[in-house]
Amino acid sequence: MPKNRPYLFYELTNSICSTCYRKVEAKVIIQDDLVYLMKYCMQHGREKVLISTDVEYYKRCREFIKPAEMPYVWNTPIKYGCPYDCGLCPDHEQHSCLTLLEITDHCNLECPICYAESSPERSNYRSMETIEKMLDAIVQNEQEPDIVQISGGEPTLHPQLFEILDMAKSKPIKHIMVNTNGIRIAQDKAFVKRLANYLPGFEIYLQFDSFEKEALQELRGRDLREIRKKAIENLNEYNISTTLVVTLKKGLNDGEVGSIIQYGLNQPAVRGVTFQPVQHAGRIENFDPSINRLTLSEVRQMIIDQSGIFAAEDIIPVPCHPDCLAMGYALKQGEQVIPLTGLIDPQILLEGGRNTIVFEQDQSLRDQIFTLFSTNHSPESSAMSLKELLCCLPKVSIPESVTYQNVFRVIIMQFLDQHNFDVRSVKKSCVHIAHPDGRIIPFDTYNLFYRDDKENLLEEIRNEMKRGG
Ligand code: SF4
Ligand code: SF4
Ligand SMILES: [Zn+2]
Questions:
Q1: What is each CA distance from 371 to 195, 323, 337, in whole angstroms?
Q2: Crossing angle for the helix pair 296-307 and 55-63, nearest 10 degrees?
Q3: Looking at ligand 1, which residue's alpha carbon is closest to its atom 7?
Q4: From atom 8 of ligand 1, which residue's Cα is the shortest distance away?
């Protein structure tokens, strides 16, 4: 009797070797209801990486796509092939939904998981001139960028933060976010009051990982419980739109997914929670990428199991980059929380509402709904679409006035690292980062190949390619 393979070979893609970062072929296989990436490097051998725990959802993401929106300009030529040409090179398959702008590498924390390796010892502050150049590159690519996220290091420590915010506000950017650990927000009320001047179109992206001392110590190197509490108090007082950002580590804080959502729902200033599974758990001993990874599908299941609000149909892939982004929207009305994403047949997002009585009359409404549910673009304009949408959903009572304050969104944002790297997927990345030299680079490839001295390795790889190696 011939023997069968113990798995199903689902598709073929390209990845990188997690040791030498050279491009390698990778098989996507399904085994025992789990999806793995299997790759082989001639130098470093075979790797098997868990990429999804939900086969059906994984397959659904393959279907859940729409034609890519392009940036207005490309920034680099195609020369060495993906991912060595960032970017954005003309081979990229998505514009920037969100662009990060790092203004310093200085930070008042030294988190063991920091991808930027920021710390109190580092103290480079980008000049206004460089920052303007970076903002202009973002605007050149997008004309009216949806979201620019000012980041670091810890951006609130940049001595010219307010000048930077004024400058960003003077550009045609729809939504500005400040990505912060919240320490200054907790400790300096006059600072928070001044931030409120930038509303609307302004949001705080607040690090918020856990209610537990031990988890905070492990992720951040410090017990930040009081800091978080005080920061939220101050943000509530000035009603500054806030997204809680949770870095999730397997077995550490992944039991708190539901309680953080519930907490967020009870805070007047909080508009949603973004969960980001930490991928490469560098300090964990005996880390095995085939079993120790926390995947998007597991986080999705945790939201479904723990939140008591969102069901499976409410957390859907985001069509611009379905492998790495999932979302759920809810309407918040006092005590009542109504998940909305599941009320829409996901197919209408792709087919333009063919089978629905509600939407078939109105093309502009369909477009608005598509905008609301298919992207995380400009959150405030989503609130307007939501208002229109509610008029058409008989199951939902229409509140007097729906504003951005009534929208609550849950996002899962998974990043690609050297283990789960998939060239097919990274081409669709829509979270980008501005390089000071004017390039706009996908966040995932930036951290692997383009941040600081990582370009040395990239140069080595490119030189090998030139020599035909
Ligand atoms: S990730 Fe995108 S920008 Fe970078 S090389 Fe690949 S296609 Fe080009
Ligand atoms: S607070 Fe943010 S920037 Fe600062 S060290 Fe931690 S992860 Fe890095
Ligand atoms: Zn290798």
A1: 28, 19, 21
A2: 110
A3: 92
A4: 89
How far is it, in rounded angstroms, from Cα 21 to Cα 72?
A: 30
461, 351 Cβ separation under 8 angstroms: no
Ligand 1 site, CB within 6 A? 82-83, 85-89, 91-92, 426-427, 442, 445
451/446 Cα distance (integer angstroms): 6
181 pocket-lining for ligand 2 (C-beta < 6 Å): yes
Pocket test for ligand 1, best of 14, 75, 91 (most atoms within 8 A of CB): 91
Which atom of ligand 1 is the closest one to the Cα of 85? 5
Task: Give the number of whichever ligand sits closest to the CA of residue 416.
Answer: 1
Structure-block tokens of residue 419 = 């283990």
- What is the rounded average pLDDT of the residues 79-90? 96
Alpha-helical segments (H) within 51-206? 55-63, 128-142, 161-169, 183-187, 189-195
Q: How far is the CA of 370 from the centre of ligand 1 (A)?
A: 26
CA atoms of 192 and 397, how far apart (whole Å) = 35
Q: Is the CB of 52 under 6 A from ligand 2?
A: no
What residues contact 340, with CB distance under 8 A and at least 6 apart?
Answer: 314, 329, 330, 331, 386, 389, 393, 396
The reported pTM is 0.90
Query: What sign does the dihedral 280-114-443-407 (CA atoms) show?
Result: positive
Q: What letters, b where the CB count within 10 A reaches 16 and e where it falls short, cover 433-466?
A: bbbeeebbbbbbbbbbbbbeeeeeebeebeeeee
Alpha-carbon gap, residue 208 to 417, rounded angstroms: 22
CB 102, CB 153: distance < 8 Å: yes
**pLDDT tens-digit profile of 188-244?**
999 999 999 999 999 999 999 999 999 999 999 999 999 999 999 999 999 999 999
d(CA 266, CA 65): 34
Instruction: Compute the distance between CA of residue 256 and CA of residue 302 in angstroms, rounded to an integer.
Output: 9
Tokens standing for 34?
A: 């789990």
